[in-house]
Each structure stands twice: as C-alpha cells, then as structure tokens.
Amino acid sequence: MVKKNWVKKKLNSLLALVIFCSIVIPVTQVSAETTDTKLKAVQDKGFLVVGLSADYPPYEFHQTVDGEDTIVGFDIDIANKIAEDMGVKLAITEMNFDSLLGALQTGKIDMIISGIAPTPERLKQVDFSDPYMDVNQKVVVRKGDADKYKKVTDFKGVKVGIQKQTTQEALAKNELYGSKPVSLQKVPDLILNLQEKKVDALVLEGPVADAYLSQNEDMAYADVKFTDGAKQTAVAIEKNNPAFKAQINASIDEIKTKGLLADYQKKATELMFHEASFFEQYGSYFAKGTMYTVLLALIGVIFGSVLGSLLSLMKLAKTKLLRWPAAIYIEYVRGTPLLVQTFIVFFGGTALFGLELSAFVSSCIALSLNSAAYVAEIIRAGIMAVNKGQMESARSLGMSQGQSMRFIILPQAIKNILPALGNEFVTVIKESSVVSVIGVTELMFQTGVVQGASFKPFLPLIITSLIYFALTFTLSRLLGVAERRMQASD
User: Fold this and answer.
1) Strand pairing of 47-52 and 230-233?
2) Helix (H, G, I), strand (E, B) or coil at 203
C-alpha cells in the first residue's frame, strides 16, 4: 500500500512538472523573442530615425508644401504610421541609396524605408519586416525602340541602366543575357542617360517607372517579362531586435488590414504633380544648396589652412619625429580620394570611436583634413621660395627662429602663395559636391532632389553649373584684386 502511494505521488509530481514546463517554458521563449533594447531606446529618445533616398517618387521625394521643402511619398506615410504607433516622432535622414545599409549597421539610423526589397545578400547583413507592397520590375526604353526588345535575350551588348546596389542591378545582371549593366546612384541620372542615348534601356520598379513615363512621352515600356521580377518591399532594421521588429510588423499589418496603402499612394500621386512654375517651386532648393556649399568651403579652407600651416612647419622641422608624421599624413591624404575620406570620417567615427557625428560635421572634418594636406604643400613651397638670406639676416639681428619665421618669412611667403590658396578655395567649392553621398544638402545634393521631384533631369544641372561658375568666377576676381593690392604695396 505504501509502495502504491509512493508511485502515485511520483506520477503526480512528474505530471505537475510536465504541465509546468508546457506552460512556463513557451512563455519564457516568447518573452525572450519579443524583448530587446532597440524599441525602448527609440521610445526613450522620443524619435524614430528613418533613412531613405528621397529621389524615388512616388515612394519618397521632395515637394514644396505650404511654402516649405518637405519629403513626401507613401513610404513617408508608412514611416509616420510606424512612429505614431511607437509613440514617438519621425526624424528623416536622407542620403544616397547605396549608403543606407552602412548607416543602419553603424547606428546612424534606426530603420530603412526606401522601396528596399529583402534579398539573400541583404538578409545576411540586416533583418526585414513583413512586406508592405508587391511590385514588378519593368524595362523602360526610348519610345522608338520599344519594338526592338521583346525578350530577355534581346539585350546582348546593350547598355542597361540600373540603380547601384538595388534589386534591379541583380536582375539586369542575371536575366538580361549578354547586357552591359551601367550602375548609377540616382534614378534621375538613369533617366538622363536614357534620354541622351548613353544607355539603351533601364530596369525600374513599376511605381517609379509609371511616375516617370507619365511625365516623359519619349519613353515607353519594353514588353519584357522577368522570371524573378516580382519583388516585395519591406522595412530594413538591424539584426536581433525582435520587439522592435514586432512593433513595425504590427503597424504594417494594420496598414494592410485597413487598406491604408491605397490612400497613401493616392496622396503621393497628387503631390507628385503639384502645379507651379519651376523657379517658384524649386528656387529655394538651389538657394539652400548654394548656402551650404559656400559654408562647407569656408570651413574647409579656414581649418585646412590652420592645420596645413602646422603640417608645413612640421615638415620643415629638423627633427624626424616632426617631419615623418607630417610627410606620411600629407602623402596619405593626397593619395586617397575625398569620397573615401568622407566615408571614413562619417562611418568610422561611430564604428571605431563611438562618436555620433552628423553628416554636416563629418563633411566639415573630411574637407578640412583633405584641404590641410594640399595647403601644407602650398605653404611649404611658399616658405622655400623666400630667399635663405632673409632668415640669416633676421637671425643676425637677434631674432629667434620662431620670430624670424613669424615676422619675416611668413609675410613674404603669403604673398607668394595667395594665388595658390585661392585656387584651393575654388577647388574645395567644387569638391564639396562629393559630400552629397552622405546626405549633406549642398548644391549637388539639392540638384538631385530637384531632378527627382520635377522629372526634369537636365535643366537642374544647367542651373547648378551656372551657380558654380558664378561662385568660382566671383572668388577669382576678388583674389585678383587682393593680389594686385599686395603687389602695389611692394
């Protein structure tokens, strides 16, 4: 009897343990799967940072709304819905499409919503939400060439334009057999290349292609069907953030359940074709871009001159401990592109040092560091051009090495190097266009914005070229006046 009771107790205990595990363990797993720090971090700071490339109507594009430059499109409405459901405000960070994944992985942005599709390569780097829209890829050609391209085998030796690091790029390489893909950063550049016969076809997403064809009668669809042309767009986020992902998925599910996307698309279409004169609608974009370009150039040259002066004196020093670091820095900076240096400062500042540098601050630093290397060589050459007897005379009068350099050598060197420094200023004005890749709203960035919003890829380039010419020509004349006055003072 005792043995039976003992067995019964053991069975009851085992049954209780099984029931406990079946209830508690799954709950614990779900809790683990839906818990992370990302969602709380976003809610604590009070805003959701969304990265996008706003040259992709109707997904996202610039438009003048109530007299103000505003980024609009149905992706923006989706992002606003997600932010609202999280109880935070939406903050937009704009940059080139091929810079977005790097910005997400280095914590510059919280998510990407820019017509981006999950691909096996991207899924290795980031996570994606549930898809919010199905799209088909289309081939766009010049109207007179529509009958030439019927099948994917008709593109042997044909130049096909695609946006860099997109689904369309992989599609053109894998399915348009024998084609010659031409990868560019922005859709307006692709349209311009097609119109100017630099490429013969484009691969674009259906909604984007529809928008451009509605405004360009000289383009048409080629009747080409892709095997893998159907894609889904989703929101990209950093890996291992299940609660953050679940919150986004809940918002997307509500958008699909309530049919909100159709309303968002209708609103975007209406904004795309807002009627106003070109300069009334986009004049402020060029003005803003010009202001940022001049500001970047000023900061780059001023701080570059200060650092460049120090580097030139280090390179002229007698001790190797000063000469070698200066020489290595100058040769390295002069031997690498400004574009690479800009990416190193912008992404490396966060990845290596944990510094949250804005795109503008990163650009100022990159331009200053780059300009310093060239200014250092300009100043060094100017100092070397001063007769050695000047230094000897100054020292014979009892001046120290520093005093001789400050009061005798440098004033003469500045007169010699002023034209070269002026040329450096002109160069920095033009080279500042490089920083548009990380979203600084200088002149070339704003040009791309106007191209995408106006569906006019060529006219904004002409206006921008005239603005650059006006800036550089005015600067050259001012430097000429200063140089003549210095010569007169002699």
Assistant:
1) unpaired
2) strand
Q: How far is CA 228 from CA 45, 141, 160, 176, in A?
A: 41, 20, 17, 11
How much is the pLDDT for 112? 96
Sheet containing strand 55-56, edge to edge, reads: 55-56, 60-65, 68-72
- At residue 489, the pLDDT reads 59
Q: What is the rounded end-to-end Cα distance, in angstroms, of the chain? A: 123
Q: Where are the alpha helices (DSSP H) in 400-442?
A: 401-404, 410-431
Beta-carbon count within 10 A of 254 CB: 13
Scan for tokens 């091929």, then name that residue. Answer: 98
Cα torsion through 8, 12, 15, 17, rounded to 10: -130
Backbone angles phi, psi at 420, to 5 degrees: -70, -40
**Whole-prediction pTM:** 0.73
**Other beta carbons less than 10 A from residue 220's beta carbon:** 17
Distance in angstroms (rounded) separating the CA atoms of residues 479 and 473: 10
H/E stretch holding 60: strand 60-65
Q: Which one, of 363, 372, 366, 362, lies nearest residue 307 by Cα?
A: 372
Nearest to 207 by CA among 280, 129, 265, 125: 265
pLDDT-flagged residues of the chain (< 50): 1-11, 14-33
Q: Phi and psi for 148 in degrees, rounded to 5? A: -80, -25
Q: 234: burial class by Cβ within 10 Å (0-12, 13-18, 19+)?
A: buried
414 exposure class (CB count in 10 Å sphere: 0-12, 13-18, 19+): middle
Cβ–Cβ < 8 Å for 349, 355: yes
Pair 256, 133: CB distance under 8 Å: no
Q: What is the pLDDT of residues 270-304, one digit of tens each?
A: 888 766 778 888 888 999 999 999 999 999 999 99
